[in-house]
Specification:
four-stranded mixed sheet, globular, 3 domains, 616 residues, 16 helices, binds 4-O-methyl-alpha-D-glucopyranuronic acid, eight-stranded parallel β-barrel, TIM Barrel, alpha/beta, 11% strand, Alpha-d-glucuronidase, C-terminal Domain, single chain
Length: 616
């Protein structure tokens, strides 16, 4: 089966039906339209009212029966079709997703640009207006439904005009038309809103305790639901990186979020409130302020103060989507608050969809650290209008795996997800599955080695976050420092240092507190370490830094070689396009290797123990 790039991991399905109806109707149409995949059997759908996303797949009189809720039967139908295609038994007992809302956040601006977008322009907007191909939006909806994603925010959390108008009379008819297109796929719409909207619409204030402001948001929500009856709600970035918020009025974020929550509540809507709040105007001389501590400090004291339709959306780690961070301490706190995990599929700090970076190992690591899963999950999208959706063809696997993670939760297996993606995308008989699987699974380790070792973070180019710049962030205002000198590197986040470790539950805090028990891959996240410190395998820290960078660059070449070996079994277009990405990755890895090794060599004067070249 040739891989049709336009169809992503569902190249074997017929065109998406245009007149889809609701999700259950669509499920029936998909099963009927693709009956050839069912091995001579037929498949019927049976609705269980109130069963929501849950479903089971049974055999009845020699045929298949997908039984479940309105959206459940659609998920079941896609599972049935994809399992049959892969040659797996599609029968399965009752299944429910681990996370209730399984969201995708697009950071799309209405001029068509995508903040941190590496796959072309927006799928929804151009030139300050809605601009999309309905057929492609249907393919997009199908892709999302096939992995169980059930909510999307189409606009950037940094709301730039005219996107603030998406919820006003002017743009609501168009916004509603897009919601209509997505509805059959069980995908509900969220919109990022500007907290200062009351002011731009003529009120003197956006103070959440002001009655006129409350009335404004009530009216606004009444209006939205006239156009979009199943509107999911607002996504809010407030008091973060120059966005307006309740702090301007000396109000807490509970007061701020509750304002919107109360306006949405009568309609069943939700507020997704992001916890990415920190001082982005820090003085690098200030050693007492430690950015990873900010979110916990802001939010933990507010536990229990939020309306029940507020969801706090917390990034996986306390910094910002770095290669290696511990889980955010907020995941162990705030038992009386509803939370969502936020991960980033867009590879902002992890190779920008030029370098290969399969994300599931990060999520599995996060799962191993956090005992109680939040109720909801969200991913920053890696999609754009590039023909292959994700810029790097293999980055499609991240979106596919995200859907599986969001459904399976603790039962998620990144390796299994990669296998499924390969089979669906390249054919169930793809002869080089093991090679491609190995490339995906080792990619994070390779990238980590040639970029920043042991949880160090922020040696990246400050302007666009690709390529090395060891001091790019060092004297900046962003609170992102490693403070390397001639003796040591890293921030001491123990009790004796910034005290960050105290934000974790006792047992974990104790583990991170000591260099002896801190997981070595996060050593430089938690500790300031001398270059001559002996690591557990007997190497010095400095030698480990050198080794990782040499090995990482070499292993990037290994990925390129593996890709070249795949040429005979890949469609020409995909092969050539991706080959170019691997070549760029190799260049990038060499640059990182040489810049970082030279940086530390200049400080220490210590050569590589293995005599490899370090340029000065
Ligand atoms: C949407 C990082 C990114 C910003 C992004 C921000 C966020 O700082 O660099 O582009 O803004 O995260 O998550 O809000």
């Amino acid at each position: 089966m040739p891989c049709d790039e336009k169809l992503c991991w569902l190249p074997f399905l017929q065109d998406v039906p245009g007149d889809a109806g609701g999700p259950a109707e669509l499920a029936q149409k998909e099963l009927a339209g693709n009956a050839a995949l069912l091995g001579g059997k037929s498949a019927a759908v049976s609705l269980l009212p109130g069963a929501g996303d849950g479903y089971e797949i049974l055999e009845r009189d020699g045929n298949y029966l997908v039984r479940g809720g309105e959206t459940g039967v659609l998920y079941g139908a896609y599972r049935l079709l994809t399992d049959c295609y892969r040659g797996e038994s599609p029968l399965r007992p009752w299944t429910m997703p681990a996370f209730s809302l399984r969201m995708l956040n697009h950071w799309d601006n209405m001029d068509g640009s995508v903040e941190r977008g590496y796959a072309g322009k927006s799928l929804f907007f151009a030139e300050d207006r809605f601009a999309y191909d309905p057929a492609r939006i249907r393919r997009y909806g199908r892709l999302l439904a096939s992995i169980g994603v059930n909510a999307v925010c189409i606009n950037n959390v940094n709301v730039h005009a005219p996107a603030d108008q998406l919820i006003t009379e002017r743009l609501l008819p168009k916004t509603a038309a897009l919601a209509d297109l997505l509805r059959p796929f069980g995908v509900r719409l969220l919109l990022a809103v500007d907290y200062a909207l009351p002011v731009t619409q003529g009120l003197p204030t956006a103070d959440p305790l002001d009655e006129k402001v409350q009335a404004f948001w009530n009216r606004q929500c009444d209006l939205i639901y006239q156009y979009i009856p199943d509107f999911l709600g607002f996504l809010v970035k407030a008091d973060s990186e120059f966005r307006p918020g309740p702090f301007l009025y000396h109000r807490s974020h509970a007061e701020g979020a509750n304002l919107l929550a109360r306006a949405l509540k009568p309609h069943g809507g939700k507020v997704i409130w992001r916890c990415f709040v920190y001082n982005c105007r820090q003085d690098w001389r200030d050693h007492a302020t430690d950015r990873p501590m900010a979110a916990y400090r802001h939010y933990a004291p507010l536990d229990g103060q939020f309306e029940d339709n507020v969801i706090l959306q917390v990034k996986n780690g306390p910094y910002d989507f770095q290669v290696r961070e511990p889980a955010s301490p907020l995941f162990y706190a705030m038992p009386n608050t509803v939370k969502a995990l936020e991960v980033q599929l867009a590879q902002e700090y992890t190779g920008q969809q030029i370098d290969l970076y399969y994300m599931p190992p990060m999520w599995e690591e996060w799962l191993s650290q956090v005992p109680d899963l939040p109720d909801h999950i969200c991913a920053v999208s890696n999609l754009g209008n590039d023909e292959n959706w994700t810029g790097h063809f293999l980055a499609q696997a991240n979106l596919y795996a995200y859907g599986r993670f969001a459904w399976l939760g603790r039962a998620f297996d990144g390796k299994a997800a990669a296998r499924e993606w390969i089979a669906l995308t390249l054919g169930s008989d793809f002869p080089e599955t093991e090679r491609l699987l190995s490339m995906l699974l080792r990619s994070r380790g390779v990238y980590e080695k040639y970029t920043s070792p042991l949880g160090l973070c922020w040696m990246v180019n400050i302007s666009h976050h690709y390529g090395p710049s060891p001091e790019g962030y060092e004297f900046s205002l962003w609170g992102t420092y490693h403070r390397a000198d001639y003796l040591a590197v890293g921030i001491d986040r123990t009790e004796k240092g910034t005290g960050y470790t105290r934000q974790y539950p006792k047992e974990l805090a104790e583990q991170y507190e000591s260099m002896d028990t801190c997981p070595e891959e996060m050593l430089l996240f938690f500790h300031r370490v001398r270059y001559d410190h002996m690591l557990r395998d007997g190497r010095t820290l400095l030698q480990r830094i050198y080794d990782d960078h040499f090995e990482g660059a070499e292993e990037a070449e290994g990925l390129l070689k593996d890709w070249v070996a795949l040429q005979p079994v890949l469609p020409d277009g995909i092969y050539a396009h991706t080959l170019d990405r691997f070549r760029r990755q190799v260049q990038n890895a060499r640059e990182w290797r040489d810049v970082i090794n030279t940086y530390f060599h200049r400080f220490t004067g210590t050569p590589d123990a293995k005599g490899r070249t370090i340029y000065d």
